[in-house]
Each structure stands twice: as C-alpha cells, then as structure tokens.
Amino acid sequence: MKRAAALYLRSSKDRKDVSPDAQRRALHELAASRGLAVAEEFVDAVESGKDADRPGFQRLLAAVRNPARGWDTVLLHDTSRLSRRRVISLMFEEIDCKNNGVAVVYKTLPDVDPLTEMMLKSMLVAWDEYHSISSKQKGLAGMGENVRAGFRAGGRAPTGYMLRKVATGAVREGEVVTKSVLEPDPKTAMAIGQYLRDRAAEVPRQRAKMLARLTVPDTTLISLEWNALTYAGHTVWNVHAERQGSSYVGGSKRRPRSEWVIQRNTHAALIDDEAAERLLGRLEAQAATRTATGVRQRDRHSGALLGGLLFDPDGKKWWVEADRYRCGSRSISRATIDAQVLDQVLTDITSPAFAPALVHATRAALASDSAPTTRRQLAAEIEAIGGKISRMLDMAADLADPAPALRKIDDLERDRAGKQRELQRLEAEAERAGWVEKVGVADVARLLAEISAEAKEAGRSDVLRPVVASVVERIEVDPRTMSGAVHYRVAAPETGVKLASPRGFEPRSPP
What we know:
Blueprint lengths: L2 E8 L9 H14 L2 E9 L10 H10 L8 E4 L2 H4 L3 H14 L3 E4 L7 H35 L12 E12 L2 E10 L4 H12 L4 H8 L5 H9 L1 H4 L3 E3 L5 E2 L2 E2 L12 E3 L9 H21 L16 E2 L7 E3 L2 E4 L2 E4 H16 L4 H13 L4 H28 L4 H35 L3 H18 L6 H7 E6 L6 E8 L6 E3 L11
Parallel strand pairs: 1-2, 1-3, 3-4, 11-15
Antiparallel strand pairs: 5-6, 7-10, 8-9, 12-13, 13-14, 15-16, 16-17
Helix pairs in contact: 6-7, 6-10, 12-14, 12-15, 13-14
C-alpha cells in the first residue's frame, strides 16, 4: 500500500498569487512522482499568511498532532504557502511536524542535501517575510495617496452615505480604473445628520435616536459619533490600530488623533466642524478617563452582581456604569439594588416551593428521550462509517485520480465527527441525569439553606453570585418607581408557572 500525504493550499488577495487549483494540480503531480497517495487536503482561500489564525492551517495543525491521521507527509507548493512569518514556519516544521514524525515537502524546493536544504529554506522564508512587509507598506502608501486625493481607502460607505465610482482616466489590464467617493444617501442622510447634531448638543443617545427615527442597532450609534469628521465632509484614514491576533496593538482600538490621516472637504457634509469636534472631544475624554481609572463606562465584565439580569418592564436592559446601574436617564446605586436582590433571593430560595421546583427543573433539563437505544444506534453508525472510510482509502490509493474518493472520505469524516460529538453529549447527559435522580428534594433544600446561612453570616455577595446567575432569569426594576421583582428560571412542578418573588422589593434608600 502506498504511503499517504496531505496537501496544504493557501491563496491570498493578490491577483498574481498562485490559485488553489493550480497548487492542487502541481502537488498531485509531486505526490505521484514520489509514490504518495493524497489522503487529505487543507485549504485557506483568500487568507493572509502573516499569522496562524487560518481555519485550514489550524485544522492541519490539529491533524499533525493526531497520531491517527493516516499520513506522514505534508506537501506545499512553496514556503510562502505555509506562512510569511519565519517564527510560524519554524514552529510548524521544527516542533509540530518533527515531534510527530511528519515530513514537509515543497514543490519548488529542489532535492538537495540536508545542509543545503536548511540554507535554502532559511533564505526563502526570510524573503517571504520581507515580501509581506514590503507589500503591506506599498499597500498602505497607496491607500494614503488615495485619501490625499480625496478618494476612499476602501471598505463600505458609512451609514448615511453611499459610494459613487469615479473614473480616474487610467486603464489597467484593459479595464478602466475607478475609485470611490462618498455622496449622501437620500434615504438616511437627513436622519443621521439630525442624530449627530442632537448628540453634539448633549441630547441623550436614546432620545436622539428616537427623535431622528433611526432604526440602526444601538451598538452602531457610538460608531456614528466616532466617525464625526467623516460626517463633517472629510475623508479620514489610519484611525484603527493594527490587530495582532484577537487584540489591538497598544491595547486601544483607535490610534491617537495625531496619527489619523485627514483630507478635508472631500464630500458633502451632514454636520459642521464644530459639532464634529464636540462629539469627538467628548468621546476622547471618556476614553482617557477609562484609561486613567481602569474602569470602562459600560463594562459588562466588571463583576457586577446583577450585570445582564436587570430589565425594565418593557424588556430594556439596565447597564453597568461604574458603581451604578443605569436605564435611560435614571440610575441607582449598585450597592442598593444588590442588597435588595440578595435579601430577596436568600428569602426565596429557602421557601417551601423553591427546592421542589429546582429539582423538577433540573431533572427535566437532563431528561433524555433518546436513552440507551439512540446511543447504541449512534455507536453502530460511527463504526460503520469507519469501515467505509477504510475501504475508500484503499480504493483511492489505486485510482489514477483519487480526488473524488478523497472528497467522499472528507464528507464521511465530517459525518463521523458529528455523530461522535452527539454520542459524547448523550452519554454525559445520561451520567448527569443518573446522578440527579439520586438527589432528593430534602437534600436540595438543606443545601440551599446552608448557602443562604453562609451568605448572611459572611455578608459577602460573592458567595451568592453563582446562585444568582444559575437560578435568576431576570430582575425587573421600573425606572419610574424603582420597584422590582425577581423572576426565576424554575417553575412550580404542579402548574409549570415560573416562580417569582411574591412581594417584589423597593430600594430602602434614595437612588
């Protein structure tokens, strides 16, 4: 039986780049010349080679580390397909592949002695990184020149504008070269302008949205304000900091304004410069305050006891602002509401109705109507798919063009992986359900009483925080009256109606 290999194919946005199809043909020829059967293929289409966060490359890494992968060679067209950064190439070949007995072969690298191969690879990988840096610098320079000429650097038009193509007079590869400029969108420009003018006049954000009759998501409103200079008729570029993995270089999403490239009066304005400066000045002051204090204005991860649980009667969320919760123009001390809710929850969880409801809800959530029959059926299907994959691999090794068989094997592998995940989930559910069946109402009631007593004795909200998160569905607080009620995730076994605090609560001190 032939030895097996995997292919890794990557293309970028560069029009002159080698396409995945061309790489695939070249690598199948390489595999045939070396007596290798192509068993698996990993592809990243239009993906940068500067980092390792590529889906196809990550799947390749996982397969290299899997002893049951079924192949021992990775074929690539050239060193730049793997990466344009030396550290990624080095770690992949010298650590991942060598430690797992996988050879790496490049189509464009000649067969030479190990010392010469090492020298060649080092030079090629260094050139790949140089090319990447050089291309980036040229691209950024080109974008900067576009902006200085009054054109867009790329991307979609901001809300309130639309893109209009303008012929530059140049012709490239037989096609007229066009670039984009902004013009007001007749459907949305008036509303966006009104919203931004109201915000510059310090009208609250939600009220300004309502007055302008905007239908954009709330998360878009802050972006509109950060784009104030664009809405004042200027083209702005180099605003956002460079990303590295999942974070921003320097820790901030936006660069200092001194680094922005601003070309003034390039398109029709929706607001004046004075309004734009007021909007940006306020946002920059808020950002500076958050940096100095280490507290975000709306920090959903601040550890607030009730963060994400507080709603008004209409379903609108209260959000966390430093040491207060805020909804619209009303706010209340976090300590005040936290204490009220803790008292109410401690009282409710020790009530006679709560323990039976919690046990009933837990058993219902873990109940499985699939039971052993479905698990046995899934196990049989997984075994049958394994047999099919083995037969298809044998068949692919003898075919002149194994591609159709390999695609079928890939489909079977995905099907098998999905069934394995489902089987693991059902087995875990069955194990948990068996454990819960052994726990009685009296046991749960005793546990809840202990938690309540411990929290009251310690006087610490952190003791109860996991309980609040697991049993409370939402807490309604009316911004007008500041009265509230706790609604729980569990329902009474007899009626199926979810439990709620019977009398509700009201703050003991003014908000």
